[in-house]
Amino acid sequence: MRVRTCFHIVSALAIVGCTTHGESVPSMVQLLTDPAAFAGSEISVRGYLAAPIFNLALFLTQEHAALADHVSSIPVADSTPDGYLTNECAGHPAIVDGTLQKRGDAPFIVAASGRSLLYIISDVRRVLIYRDGQLEQCWPPESE
Predict the structure, then answer these.
(1) Taking the chain (144 residues) in consecutive chunks of 10 residues, what is each chunk's mean pLDDT?
(2) SS3 content of the chain, % helix, strand, coil (to 5)
(3) Residue 59 resides in a domain
């Protein structure tokens, strides 16, 4: 049994902060505003998974993804075979479980955009997507 501790802020953005056995469950707002607080941590975060122009990212909302508003996103490393996350999981609201890592290749981005782009969700362990109103596991694919 997993024990989850949460605190809530009543707003349009819902839950802000939970912990499940050492795994952080931050909101997208927390990751976007203070990614350093979660650096190196295993996280589980909800957002809209998309690759609107180039790289895969978890966006605050579908509208942010449609506008390719990368300031409102956290990049997601797709190291799956044949880009499975990008090809099969993107384009849906999603919950991504992975590790938030500081990027070594992005210091030039900060001046033009947000701190969140200095970080990336890597070592993706699981992706759940909402499709047709149902939550389903997208990664890793379930055996048939």
Answers:
(1) 38 41 82 92 96 90 94 93 95 97 63 66 96 95 74
(2) 25, 40, 35
(3) yes
